[in-house]
Amino acid sequence: MTVPKILIAFYSRNGSTEALAKAIAEGAEIEGADVRLRRAREVVPAEVMAKAPGWVEKATEMNAKYPMPTEEDAEWADAIIFGTPTRFGAVTSELKAYIDSLGGLWFQGKLNGKVGSVFGSTSSTHGGNESTLLSLYNPMAHLGLIIVPLGYADPVLFEAGTPYGATHVSVQDTVAPNAKQLEVARFQGRRVASVARRLTVGTEAFFN
């Protein structure tokens, strides 16, 4: 059986997006995927990070757990799942910097036909989860990724998440993702891995 290779490239400052990323990885692994979890790195100076309580400490902790995403990771993967908190209703500069670094692969056409999907979190109820996920569809289209949304393909989507990807609202970082939100995330991992496997098998059959 073909083993789909999944890259989950995310940024997380306080742990909400990280929790969703881990649940997506669990779902993909249930589907038999080989998963790489990668955390994008900070792009602001240390003195800026120091002004936000806990930022330096949490970044150090997470960076010890997750390697930074690389160009090689994207080339290796059959599917790339991007995860980000919202920043003023849009993607974080940290994750966007990684996406922007993929220009060399884009120029060579090496990302064409890979699966792409997104997930995210925000601090407030109307903080921009959906606008952020939809904004990531634009660079994914430019990279040549085949965008895989969730739709309402699982009953849990009627209770949590969005049709565009798994989401969470942390209420100023006081609430962790609940069981339904994590279930949506696991479904996203399973769905992306399943689609990636079908596309990979189809490609192998076409060229062999």
Automatic annotation (TrEMBL):
Its EC number is 1.6.5.2. It comes from Rhizobium mayense. Transmembrane segments: none annotated. One of its GO terms (molecular function) is NAD(P)H dehydrogenase (quinone) activity. Residues 6-192 form the Flavodoxin-like domain. Gene3D superfamilies: 3.40.50.360. It comes from the Bacteria. It is an enzyme of class 1 (oxidoreductase). Keywords: Flavoprotein, FMN, Oxidoreductase. Pfam families: FMN_red (PF03358). SUPFAM superfamilies: Flavoproteins. InterPro entries: Flavodoxin/NO_synth, Flavoprotein-like_sf, Flavoprotein_WrbA-like, FMN_Rdtase-like_dom. PANTHER family: FLAVODOXIN-RELATED PROTEIN WRBA-RELATED (PTHR30546), FLAVOPROTEIN-LIKE PROTEIN YCP4-RELATED (PTHR30546:SF23). This is NAD(P)H:quinone oxidoreductase. Belongs to the WrbA family.
